[in-house]
Amino acid sequence: MPTLRIINGTLLTGGPNHGVLAGDLYVRDGRLTHIGVVPPTADETLNAQGCVVIPGFVQSHVHLCQTLFRGAADDLELLDWLKTRIWKFEAAHTPESLRVSAQLAVAEMMRGGTTCAMTMESVYHTEAALDVVAESGFRAVVGKCLMDAGDDVPAGLRETTTQARTESARLVEAWHGQAEGRIRIAFAPRFVLSCTESLLCDIAALARENNVTIHTHAAEHRDEVALVERLTGRRNLAYLHALGLTGPHVGIAHCIWLDEAELAILAETGTHVLHCPSSNLKLGSGIAPVVEMLERGISVSLGADGAPCNNRLDAFTEMRTAALLQKMRRGAQKLTALDAFQMATWHGARALGLEHEIGSLEVGKAADVAVVTLDTLHAAPHPDPLSALVYAATAADVRHVVIAGRVVVRDGELLALEENSIKAAARKAFADIAARAALG
After folding, report:
1. Are 157 and 146 in contact, with CB atoms under 8 Å apart?
2. What is the sign, positive or negative, of the torsion defined by CA atoms of 246, 249, 254, 258?
3. Where does residue 280 rank: exposed (0-12), middle (13-18), buried (19+ CB within 10 A)?
4. pLDDT tens, 335-369?
5. Where along the chain do its domains lie?
6. 351: part of which helix (H) or strand (E)?
7. Does a cis peptide bond (omega within 30 degrees of 0) precede residue 280?
8. What distance in Å separates the CA atoms of residue 293 and residue 288, rounded to the nearest whole number?
9. Neighbours of 380 (CB within 10 A)
10. In sequence order, what DSSP letters do the residues of 207-236 get, joined into one string?
11. What's the gap between Cα 361 and its chain centre?
């Protein structure tokens, strides 16, 4: 693998020892070997003049399989959004359409400085998304969606408990650690309302036996919480905890409607919250109590969720929105630019169990790096580069992106995938899915 220098930038290191310094980075064999003062030559050099150099963003909750549905499920609340649109679209996927959806998502995220994501795919065709991750150079924790129960589930999403358990275990065997370690597999029960108790208990046991992450949703909408309580006799988080689906290996998306006891469960178990502020606003679900979570020591990271409930897969949007929402809730001094930046990088890596590999600029870690220009009208004069990154910069300001030491975006051009062909394929693939789903 070629050696690489990134020079003349301002480094925002992230991580528990976050610092801001002028200096360069050096990459050998896919890893950061020097920070600050670096060897004078390399096979390739990226100039970061006028830019901040940051650990690549880690989005802890996305759905690659839903990207084709962007703009086709607007103005609906969660359960109607799922039942009248998203489940029907997902059920109409083929391996070919899911591949295009994943390419569209990965291209957008890499172009915007995201180097790693945890994604929940649909019930079938997950290997199409895994192929895209492997081929593109992206880093991801990928889970096959598990759904062995639920009302109004279309035939194309139905599976038995045995099928759900067996196929997830097979994906772990076939894919966990592949693509030079860039791919990991998660167990991904969709949410309580789509999974039997038997399946949830099985997954809790399998995850611990195989040292695999669990990725699920909970407490996203008040109607969902009420249905779970009616079905199980417990609130959402309390029910998952009783079945063994909490702990440092568990990431739970949303967690908006929690009581004090449930917040205590998250804190005591080390369970990760995957916060999706734009999605929560667009679906009218609510605003998660992020400040209260952080005050209790709960790990909170960021994700865009799916394109049809956002509609961007943009870490810059999520950082800014997360900070502004909490300032509105708890005062202007809450959720600082540093808090938001750490949620988008270091805490994302922690949620995926990858904090020893990515999430900060440290010698020995994988070289997952984004270079973002601040030499723009909308960021000038940027006396505080971290403030400019979180509150002013946009995805269009990303100049270079490196994943595992390989340059995937150079001078704003996506190298790993061909943008125009993906856009054309996406238009055709969505038209075909809409026809199969009998939706306009």
Report:
1. no
2. positive
3. buried
4. 999 999 999 999 999 999 999 999 999 999 999 99
5. 4-55+365-414, 57-351
6. helix 346-351
7. no
8. 9
9. 10
10. HHHHT-EEEEEES-SHHHHHHHHHHHSS-H
11. 19
Query: What's 287's DSSP letter?
Result: -
Q: Which CATH topology does 57-351 take?
A: TIM Barrel (3.20.20)
List pLDDT tens digits, range 197-249. 999 999 999 999 999 999 999 999 999 999 999 999 999 999 999 999 999 99
Q: Which CATH number fits domain 4-55+365-414: 1.10.10.10, 2.30.40.10, 2.40.50.140, 3.40.50.1950?
A: 2.30.40.10
Q: Which of 60, 30, 59 is nearest to 368 (CA)?
A: 30
Please say if the pLDDT value at position 120 is more than 80: yes
Hey, which residues does 407 pair with through a beta bridge? 402
| pTM score above 0.90 | yes
CB of 62 within 8 A of CB of 317?
no
CB 32 within 8 A of CB 367: yes
**By the 8 A CB rule, do 174 and 185 touch?**
no
**Matching residue, tokens 């009208």:** 377
Q: What is the pLDDT of residues 2-55, one digit of tens each?
A: 999 999 999 999 999 999 999 999 999 999 999 999 999 999 999 999 999 999
CA distance 252 to 186: 12
- How far apart, in Å, are the Cα atoms of 123 and each of 16, 87, 127, 160? 37, 10, 11, 11
Report the alpha-carbon distance of residue 276 to residue 304 in Å, rounded.
6
375 C-beta neighbours (distance < 10 Å), count: 12
Are the C-beta atoms of 343 and 322 separated by less than 8 Å?
Answer: yes
DSSP states of 69-106 as a string? Answer: GTTSS-S--HHHHIIIIIHHHHHT--HHHHHHHHHHHH
Structure tokens at 295: 């005050």
Tell me the HSE value of 112 on the side-chain side, using a 13 A CA sphere: 24
